[in-house]
Write a structure and sequence with these properties.
Number of strands: 8
Pfam families: Methyltransf_11
GO molecular function: S-adenosylmethionine-dependent methyltransferase activity
Largest sheet: 8 strands, mixed
Protein name: Methyltransferase type 11 domain-containing protein
Strand content: 15-25%
Shape: globular
Number of helices: 11
InterPro entries: Diverse_substrate_MTase, Methyltransf_11, SAM-dependent_MTases_sf
Structural class: alpha/beta
Length: 311
């Protein structure tokens, strides 16, 4: 796959929406960042400048920044950048620089050939990948890396009472109500970037990256060795058991939900699609004997990491 459709939903986020996004999205586990940085440095990468592309409110940026001399977060949404600047963060030597810029332009003040690591956390499925790779090739120094990852909600975990019925019911609601509001990018992310354009698969191809050293790692997928070795918290920072109020807020940050709500402004309160999902989950938990005060779900997360090295 080469070009993705332009993302408009998150791009139009206000600062208030950016703050809600920051408060309700799962954090990445420190071991995950260690995995990324260990691979980057062991393959010749340095720790000078990192650019986190599609940074949103800076969730991943703030975790990566302390390892680098200079850290930049870039996002095309002015609202997200306002939130990121408010939340701050710093690199090893200075405050994180947040700029409003698309992934394809990356107009962030970094000189060509000076960047060590470019990251994209659950964002690359909205990039125009041929243009992104061409710009990344310009910015990176030889031996630099591009690390792209995505984390997905795979339904409720088998530890949750009545989990099979919950997953069936929620999937039925999703297909009935939300499928029309899924963009191509949402589907690329849901499929763990199998169809995401890489430098040697996009058109025109971008020749400055190593295909032979390409790394792909999955977590939480059936039979995956990394998930078995590292445990379920490798990708998510210990937040998989959540109360229903948090689960409702988390589901509400998805772009298909935002588009559904924009298309159905009259359906609020109990008619909202996320509220319908929550009530159905609660009904099935109640059916399994879970008391009201104990209502919570464990979210099953899946994820993928892709690392590409510049020649």
């Amino acid at each position: 796959m080469s070009n993705q459709e332009p993302e408009q939903t998150f791009r139009a986020y206000t600062a208030a929406q950016g703050q809600t996004y920051d408060q309700t999205r799962f954090r990445y586990h420190p071991n995950f960042f260690k995995r990324v940085l260990d691979h980057h440095t062991s393959t010749g990468g340095e720790l000078g400048t990192v650019i986190d592309v599609g940074c949103g409110p800076g969730i991943a940026t703030r975790e990566l920044a302390p390892f680098f001399t200079h850290a930049i977060g870039a996002d095309p949404s002015e609202g997200m950048i306002v939130t990121a600047k408010k939340l701050g963060g710093s690199s090893a030597t200075k405050d994180i620089q947040y700029v409003c810029s698309s992934a394809e332009a990356l107009d962030c003040g970094a000189a060509d050939g000076t960047v060590d690591l470019i990251t994209a956390a659950t964002a690359a499925h909205w990039f125009d990948m041929p243009r992104f790779w061409a710009r990344a090739e310009q910015l990176l120094r030889p031996g630099g890396s591009v690390a792209i990852w995505s984390m997905n909600n795979g339904g409720v975990h088998a530890d949750v009472p009545n989990h099979e019925a919950i997953n069936r019911s929620v999937e039925e609601i999703r297909k009935r109500e939300l499928e029309p509001y899924y963009g191509a990018g949402n589907r690329v992310s849901r499929d763990l970037y199998i169809d995401l354009g890489l430098p040697w698969t996009v058109s025109p191809a971008v020749s400055g990256f190593e295909e032979d050293s390409f790394l792909r790692v999955e977590w939480g997928t059936e039979g995956n060795v990394d998930a078995e070795q590292e445990g379920e918290e490798f990708l998510v920072n210990g937040q998989t058991w959540v109360k229903m109020s948090f689960a409702e807020a988390l589901m509400g940050t998805g772009s298909p939900i935002t588009r559904w709500r924009e298309a159905n402004p009259d359906k609020t309160g109990e008619e909202d699609v996320v509220r319908i999902m929550r009530r159905e989950i609660e009904r099935l938990l109640r059916e399994a004997g879970v008391a009201e005060e104990d209502m919570a779900v464990k979210v099953k997360m899946t994820g993928v990491l892709l690392v590409v090295k510049k020649k």
